[in-house]
Amino acid sequence: MKFSVLASGSTGNSLFIETEQTRILVDVGLSGKQLENRLQQIGVDASTISAIFVSHEHIDHVRGLGVMSRRYQIPIYMNEATWSNLPTSVGQIPEEVQNIFETGASLDFHDIHIESIPISHDAAEPMGFFFGQGEERLAICTDLGYVNQRIVDQVTGVDTLIWESNHDVEMLRMGAYPWNVKRRILSDVGHLSNEDSGAALTEIVKGIGEHIYLAHLSKDNNISELAHLTVKNILEETGMKVGRDVHLWATYDDRPTPLKKVKLKN
Question: pTM for the whole thing?
Answer without folding.
Answer: 0.96
